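To: structure desk
From: M.T.
Subject: fold request, one chain
Message: Could you run this one when you get a chance? Sequence is below, nothing fancy, just the single chain.
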Amino acid sequence: ASRRRRGGRRGGRRGARARDGPETMTVAAAPSAALSSRCYHRASIASARRGALPAAASAPRVFGPHHSKRRGVRRDDNNAKTTTTVVARAVDAATIASLETLLPSNRQPRARTPLMAGNWKMNPKTLREAESLAALVAAADRAQGGSATRGCDVLVCPPAPFLPAVAAVLAGSSVKLGAQNVSHEPSGAFTGEMSLAQAVSVGCDFALVGHSERRELFHETDVLVGDKTRAILDAGLAPVICVGESKAQYDAGLVRDVCATQLHGALRDVSTEELERGKIVIAYEPVWAIGTGLTATPAIAQSVHAFIRGWIEDAHGPMAAAATRIQYGGSVKPDSVDELMRCPDVDGCLVGGASLNADHFSRIFGFDDAPSGPTKLWATEVVTCRNELGESPVWDAETETLYWVDAPGKAVWSWNVGASGAPVKHEIGEVVGFVALKRGGGLLLGLDVSGICAYDPRTRVIEPLCAFEPGLNTRPNDARTDRRGNLIVGSYNGNHRGDGGAIGGVYRLAAESPRALTEVLDYKIRVSNATCFTPDGKIMFFCDSPTRAVYAFQYDPANGPAPGTRKLVYEMPNELDGVPDGAQCDADGCLWIALSGASKCVRVNRDGVVDHEIELPVKSPTSITFGGGGLDTIFVTTRGPDGGGLYAVRAPYGVRGVREVAFADASPVNAREGAREGFGMARVALGADVRDVANAMTEG
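Reply: Done. Structure tokens follow.
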């Protein structure tokens, strides 16, 4: 079982022999317990007990052309075939069906009382300064009515010599006292240490343990942190357990690995009952954001906090996870606290430098829990597909399958969520600008060389339908079908980041004449994006991304957007980086736009107001759509270098998408002249090649 959880050789099913027939494929089954971030917790627990990290969880393997020589994958560029179908890390079978456990409701209020803790470190210089600071904090606490009125607990952790005096000053306030460091030994010849009995005798309620400075400067190990945690609990105090990664670990994508290992070490002797009583506080402190001027965005903080809570849930159950307060501790300031505290899994802050200024610290523990502005949603990564440029998500409601593309990765991805399937990568061999549904079970693809093509995933046949802007340095980009089943597709200038001008167009591919494109806009563009339609099909949205503006057009399915009807719907504010990218309309006619470069998606309501924002822990969301059984899950594609995964979030209450319409041409994809076979979904070579591919995928 442990091997299966880690995705080891024994955990995955080797590829089955391919049978005769072009539709046959081999998929090396991904071990389900190493798939999702939630399942990753289980893999972490199992392997951490042996002192190991789950390699499959930290680096899911994706086999593309650059792996072919190492893994025995045959490829012949002349006839455009490859021999591997790729399974990526995704949610496990139980989670796939509803996504409920991975995507908690956005409508549940925080049930835990926030805790704001001030870590004074080796400050201030004198006892008098410490007493003065404590008096100001206590006065601010009283002015706010104390923790009961404020709905937020406050803790200060002064240096050990100041603890008795600070305790006396804080008397009569609701501010709690904590020790910065304690020994797990009850007494003895331990020069410079403070015992827990001594901490209790001077009035301490909490004790920090595992702080990054203690780990780095004083070489405190996970084992020692676990010993101290147990001793703190036995003494009747509450531990504040610090976990977090260094800059090098963050850059290497090891955040979850590091946190999982540190959590296991700290909580190895802690019972589920103790966690359920809320006696444990976890403080996530990204070491690279402490005193460096670098900051983790609220979306990054929420992403890691959600992982930590999920780890606790898998190790100790949902009651323990719900009761555990998780603080954020990375250079918290008065001007950042409100945004942080909107995150559903952030239950307070561990504050360093700002806690030495009573005005700043009181503003932090008196944070505004209902700031003005759009409603916030927080996306979770559900497939670690590591796309170079994920784009064009489209949901097939008939088969409950999500499709999207990795444009420069020359691949189409499919994820049969309804059948609890694992995501599959279909290698196409050309840059793929979009994917759209085609009546009868096929797909439409926009390819940089072959133009607009029909693709049958079952037979892997690609049939070119019509060329796209021959003679120009362009390719098809964003595309969607209108409500009558016609395709609207726009152009991508390959040199738009240089001196490329507006040379491309926007075109209509009619279902009744699928071999001819008709240009439908009366001006040229550089990068087509945000194409989508209102539920009644009478309005088309569109954006030429470099202009940073999204427009609405009156739309006639027989002819396309009506000339002279362009109306500005949304323009990116100057303070936001990036450009509008892909978009989708919900059932209320509101527009959801991915803002690539701004780490968010926004909803523009019918009054033109941004009333919802989806925050992501990566810089560039690229497109967005609705899916799931009730069309109430929002899927977001992203791009590298920091992104590339597929993200999802539960839609707000009452918000739903609209079923995607398939391209209305139902003619079969024929292997006539000009047709060719796609890269992926081909029969897998037998013998050693199969074993190599299967072993590589299960080795993680």
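Reply (cont.): Residues 1-98, 672-700 have pLDDT under 50 and may be disordered. Let me know if you need anything else for the meeting.
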